[in-house]
Amino acid sequence: MTDTVAITLNINGEDHRVSVEPRRTLADTIRDDCGKTGTHIGCEHGVCGSCTIILDGEPVRSCLMFAVQADGRKLRTVEGLAKGNQLHPIQQAFIDNHGLQCGFCTPGFLMLATSVLEKEPDIADADLLDALSSNLCRCTGYQNIIKAVRQAAIEMRGAGK
Amino acid sequence: MTDHFAGAKTYPVPPTTEQRTILGKRATRLEDPPLVSGRGRYAGDINFPRQLHMRMVRSSMANGTIKSVNVAEALKVPGVVAIWTHEDIKELGPVDFRADRGAEILKPYRQPVLAKGRARYVGDPIAAVFAEDPYVAEDAADLVEVEMEELPVVIDSWATPGEFEPGRSTEGALLKHSFGDIEAAFKKAHTIVELDLFTGRHSGVPMETRGALGYYDATKDILELHGAAKVPHRNRETLVKMLGRAPKGLHVHESHVGGGFGIRGELYPEDVLVLVAAMRLGRPIKWIEDRREHLMCANQGREQRHKCRIAADENGRVLGIDDEIFHDQGAYVRTHGANVANRTLCMMTGGYDIPAYRGIAHYRLTNKTPCATYRAPGRYESTFVRERLMDALADKMGLDRIELRRRNLITKAQMPYLIEFEEQGVEELLYDSGDYELLLDKGLKAFRWKEREAECAARRAKGEAVGIGIAFFVEESGRGPSDGAKMSVDVNGDVELITGGASLGQGFETSMAQIAAEALGVDYQKITVVHGQTDRIAQGIGAHAARATVLTGGAVNETALKLRAKALEFGAELLQLPVGDLDIVDGVIVKKGAPPGGPSLSLGDLAKKLAPGAKLLNGRDPHLAVEAWFNTDHTVFPYGIHFAQVRVDRQTGQTVCENFLIAYDIGRAVNPMMVEGQLVGGCVQGLGGALYEEFAYSESGEPLAVTFVDYLLPTMREAPQIDVMITEDAPSPMNPLGIKGAGEGGINGVGGAIASAIDDALGKAGAVVQLPVTPQRMKAMLA
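Predict the joint structure of the above. Result:
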């Protein structure tokens, strides 16, 4: 085994001090070393987006990064969306609009949509479609995902004012 | 009704949604809260202390003799515990059939758990590495040296068959389904059309790759398989046989499943290996497939060539369909035997009243990834073929496409409609109910067919290539024979419902809870639905062939009614009212029509009063708990129509689906929101197979689509506006709820409808002969 490197990942406001091989992916580290298994791995080559997290405010594919590259940075995963029992508007919108079936791609879509809507609350619908087209879902046919994100956009704009 | 139903149990027309409390309503799913919160538990999320990680060494050659496997270097990697080849597990037989047990002649084509002297496709497992860490297992797998000698490959199922092994042809079976006098039909025909059609190789490709964990509980001598899906009980039966264990010593556990679509949850070599290794190495074994492996090794499907022809009289009445099919099974026969080829054969005539039919299928082995069932197996293919023939026939006869279909649809008066095949042992089809022409009329109206025809013509006149298409299909679901369920109410009034069903993300828990809640009279959110646990219930049908809602739903309904009867019997004694005066509302036994505050008894309180030793029991069994069965000999047949509008870009060869309508009669919907979800999701998968997705292979059998860059799943950008029209005009008389399955109606006709629309857009009937219609193929068609 190769030598490991000590790093600190701040996930959802909480520091995780872990020791990882330099080649270890961020996705594996979040899941297996930090125990946040809500981030899913669907392709490991950066296409499906199931492993999307928010890193310093930007949506990233955590399968395409090494954990050491995230040392000292702030990560947000699906586990950090709800406040206690209070679901985030994007989570509630997915439930209300039947925006998920098997749920495997869902955390990736939730983090992608959250990041897009936080950065650009008034995003044009065509741009929203473009952004969401970067993740794959195999169950829903997407129709209810876009409905859910539109609903969340309205609620998040309302909350922000 | 005719005497086709003689001897069968039939049921009266069930209540409509308006007459129900929760069944048939758009109830929010019980499954969702953990899944949107990162609290799901998929195979990759399960871990056992001291587990080892398995990594497969796979063949890089499509056909070859294995000369040697050198593991010496790989074994030196620190952290590697063992490396196995076929020699290490030679007492294990090949992965056995689950269904189609009659197909004895196919047994020699089954897949060994690890290749036995010969690898037959790129991806065929040759060795297994077990290590402390998945990264280490992968390092070591790279160091395993496999020396192989190349053998000639068979790539096309229609090429001259090769030799599977000495004295055994790559044509595993020649299957036949027929009825009527086909030769006479073509002899007296006014018009005959012949086509040579191809359906491309594609598959379910769920977002979660396969995964399996083997755990041996030495204390109880129980071997456990985790990460199972679809058919846990059936797989347990097969595993018990393969491993020579007593049934009590092997259990299968389903957790969350990241999509199934028919391909996930079948028994694969890796499932068997993790169990054997867990016992032999004395440590839990975890295996998680990577995406490249998935695209090379998980079941694929659909690849068929059809040399087909259709005959009609001068009025456009179809006299016969004659089809010769070349079915590409891939390198081995997997758990389904010849089911997909057989489903293609038996569903070929669809919703039309056709007097003569002959279908012959060459079931052939090739050197590509093995195939089995993928959502609407055999039906996506046969609908494409039948509807291509109908379009071509209409064009040749100068008849309107819709009018030709209308003239040939099975009428409502002909229901139930029996299709009997001449061949011995081939199961008949008994279409239980349907009003096909009514759905056609409703669908045409909802799609605005006439208006769209004019709109498209106007756009074509301005130079655009735009058109509309249609495909009519019959689906099958809810095949028997039986399923059971257990149900109990605890002292808190919470209900536990134990089923042998399986959940692949389709909302099984919610639909079962809705059925149970309606029958019992409780809030559906009070019901916990157990599924996929072989140690909780002895039998289970799982989730395949759109069986779950019909069959398990039937069992749940029976069980909940039985529990209701038990509750009312005791309730009547305690409230001193006749049973007939009582109702159960929101989990409370009340007097019918009485104002609030009248005599009442909650189910939780009743459960307390039924504890063992309670006086009230008076010799009867304690607890508010029952179990019951639903038995049926019959399959039910939902039906639908797909309407599509497409635009073709003549420059790039790209086809864009602009609009889609699914018209589908489901008998009775348990939850219309989830039915729509199933239909729309299936439809986009179907679009993938019609336009984008293809497992292509090189001439030497090298798979060319092993990443998502090459295997193109539709994204949100490719998904068109899809409208769904669910009708409930033909509830099934074969079950008390009148329900039919929903899982496959979204995908069945997509290939057929898209092809029909492309023909229309190009103004060239019969232009599309091959799916998927990739830009390259479109350019060739336009050339």
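Chain B has 18 helices and 30 strands.
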